[in-house]
Amino acid sequence: MVPGGGMGAYFKGIHNGGTTWLSQMKAQTGRFAFLYKHMPSHPEPICKLGRHQRRWDYYVGYTSRTSVERQIQYLREDMGLADLERYMHGNRSRFPNHTHVVFWGDVNEGIYALSALDNEPKWNYNTARALHTLLVKRNHWHGYFLDLPFTYAGRAKPEVYGYMITVDKQTGTRAKNHTMNRSKTHTAWWEWHNWAYENAAF
User: Which of 84, 85, 187, 191 is most open to solvent, judged by the fewest CB atoms within 10 Å of its CB?
Assistant: First the structure.
């Protein structure tokens, strides 16, 4: 599983790539999933997708103030999620175990970090809502993968927010992370747990 070093949200034109590679993948693996990672590209000298960086920041970036509807439109049209939908659903009957999409995040790019505006008086969950509407509610891609899921209990709060599970340094006991998210609306555990469901809060 490789999330890539470019722009994990970019799927433009994927439906034009044919299915030969899916056939090869099917011959070698039992299951496979595409990773959606909500991240901007590296700068253009490093990655040619860097030319999309400014628009990405404006429409769906960490400090974006655009509406849920506009973010959905941008992700489907500019980032190619409409193409991904077409590709996944169009090939589902032939490749039922290889046409899935998983939301991927780690301590820096988990659900909690989708918007920098959620400490303001009017909490902004627009990016979380836009992504959840597209990936989960409309396409029923419920899966997610959380990298680095364990941390020692008692670490600095910003560090702990992104972890779904904590582990006691002395005893090794694991527990669901009940640290409140930055908006004080629910815990880090529920922030991730709710992602897999068609939850109205997202």
Answer: 187
The model carries a pTM of: 0.88
What's the mean pLDDT in 128-134?
A: 92
CB < 8 Å & 24+ apart, contacts of 134-138? 134/72, 134/75, 134/76, 134/81, 135/36, 135/101, 135/103, 136/195, 136/196, 136/197, 136/198, 136/202, 137/198, 138/85
Distances (CA, A) of 36 to 111, 181, 188: 12, 22, 20
Instruction: Note the pLDDT tens digit of each residue in 39-98.
Output: 888 888 888 899 999 999 999 998 899 999 999 999 999 999 999 999 999 999 999 999
**Per-residue pLDDT tens digits for 144-178:** 887 777 787 766 666 777 788 888 888 989 999 88
